[in-house]
Amino acid sequence: MPATRQLPALKVGLTGGIASGKTTVANLFAQLGVPLIDTDVIARQVVLPGEPGLARIIETFGSDVLNADGTLNRSALRTRVFNDQKQREKLEAILHPLIRQNTLQASETVIEPYCLIVVPLMFESGFNERVDRVLAVVTPPDEQLRRLMLRDKSDEAEAVRIINSQLNHDARMSAADDLIHNSGEPDELVQQVEVLHENYLKLSMQREPSQP
Ligand code: ADP
What is the pLDDT of residues 151-197, one digit of tens each? Predict the structure, then answer.
């Protein structure tokens, strides 16, 4: 993509249920030269030693949630918040604003016309308010379950539990601006991505006159 624009890049948020195909779709956009910002990667960065996120976690949960080398002991933290909504909310109140802020900062450095921000829990976290468009990858629930069990080697009860903890398929479909249907072969994604790519390039150009 041409790297000549001065204006902020159009922010397209990519979402979808677990194992719906977000990573697969994101990689196809990346092959077209679209910069990707992955909030899962940023979520790991904000809790690295020396980061304010980790300091706040220690303040709130104590140093029991650290490994001997001072890194975050994720499984200890998971155990602390598992089945305890109050504790989970405390953790989210620390992490979500930091993840949001770092993600938006990363998007401000993008020089291409648009970027794709991968946010698995887009509507659940309210991140949809911070992007210009939401693109959802949708897979029929039975196929999503099959792919999840295959990929993560999880049993059915565990896979169903995770899927049910996320926004349901129909709600996600109706809340998104754009959809990619991932019910067939992976090849069928390519053309959908190309059409959307052209559309996002157009949209990013159309908004230029109204930008300061
Ligand atoms: P997400 O990033 O949304 O969790 P992935 O892109 O990792 O989902 O896809 C979940 C799994 O399903 C992966 O193992 C991926 O290779 C596989 N997959 C994705 N799309 C298809 C498809 N159209 N047909 C079959 N398998 C697929």
Answer: 999 999 999 999 999 999 999 999 999 999 999 999 999 999 999 99
Q: Which of 29, 39, 142, 147 to mutate to test the pocket of ligand 1 (most atoms within 8 A of CB)?
A: 147
The CA 22 to ligand 1 mean position distance, Å, reads: 7
Question: Whole-prediction pTM value?
Answer: 0.91
Cα–Cα distance for residue pair 165/209, rounded to 1 Å: 42
Cα(58) to centroid of ligand 1, in Å? 36
For ligand 1, say whether the CB of 77 is within 6 Å of any of its atoms: no
Of 131, 185, 103, 97, the closest CA to residue 14 belongs to 131
207 residue type, one letter: R
73 lines ligand 1 (CB under 6 A): no
What is the tens place of the pLDDT at every residue in 101-156?
999 999 999 999 999 999 999 998 899 999 999 999 999 999 999 999 999 999 99
In the chain, list all ranges with CATH 3.40.50.300. Answer: 1-35+114-212
Tell how many helices (H) and how many strands (E) occur in the chain. Answer: 10, 5
What CATH number should be reported for the domain whose range is 1-35+114-212? 3.40.50.300
Asked whether the predicted pLDDT for residue 84 surpasses 70, the reply is: yes
For residue 43, the model assigns a pLDDT of 95
Q: How far apart are CA 192 and CA 179, in angstroms?
A: 9
